[in-house]
Amino acid sequence: MRDPTPTGDELVQVMATLSNPHRLRVVAALSAGGRKYVSLLARELDISRALLQVHLKKLEAAGLVSSQLELSEDGKAMKFYEVSPFSVHLTPECVESAVETLTMEKGPSR
Questions:
Q1: Topology of domain 8-99, CATH
Q2: Cα(70)–Cα(77) distance, rounded to whole angstroms?
């Protein structure tokens, strides 16, 4: 999320994505240590590769990380991830602007 005034849908997606502690740890690990491949990152975070893949897909869908598939010297496919530049500056005015652009369905009326 690079735009200082995100749409409502972008704001909801980023906030929902970052609301998970595992995903916060993934972003922190990639930010501190740079680009890493899935197996190494899973070992560092002490979570299964399958669970890590789920979180990485959500982070990538929100535009918070990016990936690149590479071949190792022995021919194995390795997927590397890195943090994408993003900034979230949340103010009441930002929320007010974002709400005006929401396309997601409203909740039930009371």
A1: Arc Repressor Mutant, subunit A (1.10.10)
A2: 6
Q: Are 18 and 64 in contact (CB under 8 A)?
A: yes
- Other Cβ atoms closer than 10 A to 52: 22
How confident is the model at residue 105, as a pLDDT?
Answer: 67
Whether the pLDDT of residue 93 is over 70: the answer is yes
**Coil vs helix vs strand at 77:** strand
Asked whether the beta carbons of 18 and 24 are under 8 A apart, the reply is yes
Which amino acid would we find at residue 9? Answer: D
Sketch the domain layout of the chain as residue ranges.
8-99
Residue 81's SS3 state is strand
